[in-house]
Specification:
It is built from 17 helices and eight strands. By secondary structure, it is of the alpha/beta class.
């Protein structure tokens, strides 16, 4: 009990630090305002050595697709239509004219690439695979006909992420036998979204209404257009909306997606926003992601339940490997979306990922949950299993390749006794 109290105190301290630094972090690195658009950041972390006598033998993984383009064509077409009409009417400021030039480049680069994986997205997964082999070579050692099972949703960007990851594994370990599936047959664990479908529209509407009510975009608009009333009327027409808030959000999306596209290296829209505007835009989209996918007190119980089929699959496949039913299985790799990793992390109470508040307290959200930290492009969960000669098994959990805690007592963090870890997880998905 004392160990658990100490653990929870550590987790609370970490959350407080996170809340204090998010604004500062975005000020230092504007790309962190991207939330779910944040490109995968590699934080080199030398793995903690396993206790003496334990060697890694199996890895279970779920990863989001890599960096991508915007998923909706209007994200590119609406700003172009708006700026070009204003240019014809002579209503752009010098900054607005330069914004048009840059948006044309960004739009051309994204033309007919809605949601496509970028080369940067491929490289993210190749890097994850390479580090997996580098740090746990025993798992993939070329003896016993080692096999890797891979599952993906049918989304092209997920399938391509799986391909990039596994091709890198094969390049490094050509003796591996790799099986790959992208089938609706496996949606119960690659794409569990029954809970999301129950409240998604309601939660999204609440978040968008909050953004609409709290957006102060006059200064932003006046930076780009010479006549505010003209711009307001044109924006409402192009966006088919009674207010202008969607335009600023759209421009923020374009500014943030640039980091996902190696073809746009050197391009930036950050200068269109003030530091405070950038933070506020991040905050709005953090709220939206939290209410629709996260562990909120309003909708989180139903949404977190979507993590149960995935957690069950992780545990049951590990059971088979440990029991010797699939003795040559080196790894199980799953590829999907952040919408399914978020509830898994919350369900398991991974540090920093399970903050729970109601919408009535939403101003406090940065203190308890930050999308940029919870889920980036290529975000992944990895469980690495270790065994000694006596057959005792330890497991450690990583969130985007960083060792993380769950509220489970252990004398050798980041390692947990498998029987304790298994019991904890089974209770979560059976309740």
């Amino acid at each position: 009990m004392k160990k658990l109290s100490i653990l929870f105190a550590v987790l609370c301290a970490a959350l407080t630090t996170s809340a204090q630094t998010m604004r500062e972090d975005i000020a230092k690195n504007p790309d962190l305002a991207a939330g779910i658009y944040t490109a995968y950041t590699v934080t080199e972390q030398t793995p903690t050595p396993a206790p003496r006598g334990y060697k890694p033998f199996y890895i279970s993984h779920y990863g989001r697709h890599g960096s991508r383009y915007q998923t909706a064509a209007e994200k590119y077409s609406q700003p172009i239509e708006l700026f070009e009409q204003a240019a014809k009417d002579g209503r752009l400021t010098p900054l607005g004219e330069d914004a048009l030039r840059r948006v044309r480049i960004i739009s051309k680069d994204g033309y007919l690439r809605n949601g496509d994986l970028t080369r940067r997205g491929e490289l993210e997964h190749m890097g994850i695979a390479e580090r997996m082999v580098k740090y746990y070579p025993q798992v993939f050692a070329g003896n016993g006909g080692k096999h890797v099972s891979c599952f993906s949703t049918q989304s092209v960007r997920c399938v391509m992420s799986m391909a990039a990851f596994t091709e890198q594994l094969i390049r490094l370990c050509p003796w591996l036998e790799v099986s790959r599936w992208a089938s609706a047959h496996d949606f119960h664990f690659t794409k569990p979204d029954e809970g999301m479908n129950q409240h998604y529209k309601t939660a999204r509407a609440i978040a968008k209404n909050y953004q609409r009510e709290h957006t102060d975009d006059r200064a932003f608009i006046c930076r780009l257009f010479t006549d505010y009333e003209y711009a307001k009327e044109l924006i409402c027409k192009v966006y088919d909306a009674p207010t202008t808030y969607a335009f600023m959000g759209n421009m923020h999306d374009l500014a943030m997606i640039i980091q996902n596209c190696e073809t746009l290296d050197g391009m930036s829209l950050h200068d269109l926003f003030t530091e405070e505007e950038r933070y506020q835009m991040w905050s709005f989209f953090n709220i939206r992601r939290y209410l629709t996918y996260g562990p909120s007190a309003d909708y989180g119980d139903v949404r977190n339940a979507d993590g149960k089929p995935l957690l069950r699959d992780i545990i049951e496949r590990a059971d088979k490997v440990i029991a010797g039913e699939t003795p040559n299985e080196a790894a199980t790799l799953r590829f999907g979306h952040d919408a399914y990793i978020i509830p898994l992390l919350a369900l398991m109470h991974v540090e920093g990922c399970d903050g729970r508040i109601s919408f009535a307290e939403i101003e406090r959200l940065p203190e308890v949950w930050c999308d940029s930290r919870v889920t980036s492009m290529s975000v992944n969960v990895q469980l690495v299993f270790f065994r000694n000669k006596q057959g005792d098994v330890l497991v450690k959990m990583m969130h985007s390749e960083r060792e993380v805690r769950i509220p489970l007592a252990t004398d050798c963090f980041p390692f947990y006794k498998w029987e304790d870890f298994r019991r904890y997880c089974v209770a979560l998905y059976q309740e």
